[in-house]
Amino acid sequence: xxxxxxxxxxxxxxxxxxLRYCNEKNQKPNVKELCAQIGINRGTFYNHxxxxxDLVSTLMNEADDIMDVHRSxxxxxxxxxxxxxxxxxxxxxxxxLVLLNPDLGFPYRNEIKxxxxxxxxxxxxxxxxxxxxxxxxxxxxxxxxxxxKWIKExxxxxxxxxxxxxxxxxxxxx
Length: 174
Prior knowledge:
Blueprint: H1 6-25, H2 31-38, H3 42-48, H4 52-71, H5 78-91, H6 93-99, H7 107-123, H8 129-153, H9 158-173
């Protein structure tokens, strides 16, 4: 981290410890707990973030930057979109483990879920609304839970996971 200003180094450390805390304890810390883990005072935390929610918002913005790149081609090449999104999720593994964790209840998971549901609704436009809503709900929860589990455990390689996920998606929309 040489060449990085001390304040930037502290900000990165806060994010890193926050992510580790959430992943290890399966809950989000309060400012006091986070500062104790890092060994800084609360004033230092507040120099960088207004609150824990502000820190989560920063992480969500970073994750949104990943998704923005892929949203446009989801309609054109579903396999490429699934491959690239999961690849980027792996690159940002620590952030995605926290933001996609259903037990932590961060709004990012719901934003992604809504995006997936909208995509499925468009793919299933010929179905009646009730069936479309049920399939979209099932698919979005399944995709998010499966992706979170895969990122966490990595029991299969990336390409195998993409093929599995793509296969499940195409079966749902067939």
